[in-house]
Write a structure and sequence with these properties.
Pfam families: GFO_IDH_MocA, GFO_IDH_MocA_C3. With 330 residues, this protein is of the alpha/beta class. The protein contains eleven helices and 14 strands. Helix 9 packs across helix 11.
Length: 330
């Protein structure tokens, strides 16, 4: 049996605590070797909880350890690329949270570091993993919906509650100073579209709205995206509202409709002649993080290309930056 991959985690915020650390702990293929966070007390408390030998606030201490094979980076996206580059040059493979950067120039520097170092990066487009999205892509590729296709995608997140949760309010406000929700949550949507359409983007028209004047960027963005293969997508992304509408994930074609229901954990095809439903029995988010980690470990062991890697990360960022540019030009 192969020895466990020794992994260090940098950034012990919410996504690390709620998703990455449980996935790492549950994997028999992994040993959590070190935890790093700017808040040493937080890293130390988690190190006790997960029985990790090293807790530090200095990421170089983690990277200088030759026994650590790879790192998981869960930091804000304006910090992530610099840590990713340092990790690659230190001889570590990287699984980093999306987006891989907040501008294309920096993302390309990550790509260059990957190519020069000989180590690889997997981008945390977690929700592309698993049978639901793969089934949807198969239906599209098998032409069960016909063409052209209409993609209707909506995501609403980050509840506005400055009095009840001031820490969250400050954190998301700082994030919005670096770009609207389309740069951040939009990274997943852009990856979904790139994954499903397999087509280059032809045109982007976007509008942004600030529902409160004090917000540093628009907190609601709506975009219409045309693809070179004739498909079209309508994308809504909203943050910082006290109540949200239900999100949507539908693909409509001349032969039927496919509905991805993340709450019901199903993907359903409805055509003139048939209704087909695939249901995920395992908890959706847990499943996605488990499969993501399994693919990361397999690629480390086999040397095969990490997918989604920097190629997919740059493609996603290019689309979200086109959305940002269109908003700014209105």
């Amino acid at each position: 049996m192969n020895n466990p991959i020794r992994i260090g985690l940098i950034g012990c915020g919410d996504i690390a605590v709620t998703r990455h650390l449980p996935a790492l702990q549950a994997s028999p293929q992994v040993s959590i070797a070190a935890l790093c966070d700017a808040d040493l007390d937080r890293a130390s408390q988690l190190a006790v909880q997960y029985e990790v030998a090293l807790a530090t606030s200095d990421y170089t201490q983690l990277l200088d350890d030759p026994s650590i094979d790879a790192v998981v980076i869960c930091t804000p996206p304006w910090v992530t690329p610099h840590l990713t580059i340092a990790s690659l040059h230190a001889g570590k493979h990287v699984l980093c949270e999306k987006p891989m950067a907040v501008d294309l120039e920096t993302a390309m520097k990550v790509r260059e570091a990957e190519q020069s170092s000989g180590y690889q990066v997997q981008i945390g487009f977690t929700y592309r993993h698993g049978p639901l999205l793969e089934t949807l892509r198969d239906w599209i590729r098998d032409d069960k919906l016909g063409s052209p296709l209409i993609y209707r995608l909506g995501i609403f997140d980050e509840v506005w509650d400055p009095q009840g949760n001031p820490e969250h309010y400050e954190r998301i406000s700082r994030t919005m100073e670096r770009g609207s929700p389309s740069i951040h949550d939009g990274a997943h949507m852009a990856d979904f579209l790139n994954f499903l359409t397999g087509s280059a983007v032809a045109d982007v028209q976007s509008f942004g709205l600030r529902t409160r004047s004090e917000f540093p960027s628009s907190n609601y963005d709506v975009s219409v995206i045309r693809f070179e293969n004739g498909d079209i997508a309508k994308v809504e992304i909203g943050w910082f509202m006290p109540r949200f509408p239900a999100g949507e994930f539908e693909v409509v074609g001349p032969r039927g409709i496919a509905i991805f229901d993340r709450t019901a954990q199903t993907v359903q095809l409805k055509s003139e002649t048939t209704t087909q439903t695939v249901k995920l029995e395992e908890e959706y988010f847990e499943s996605c993080f488990r499969i993501q980690l399994d693919k990361f470990i397999r690629s480390i062991r086999t040397g095969e290309r990490f997918v989604p890697g920097t190629k997919e990360g740059i493609a996603s960022l290019a689309l979200t930056k086109a959305i940002e540019k269109s908003i700014q030009e209105r």
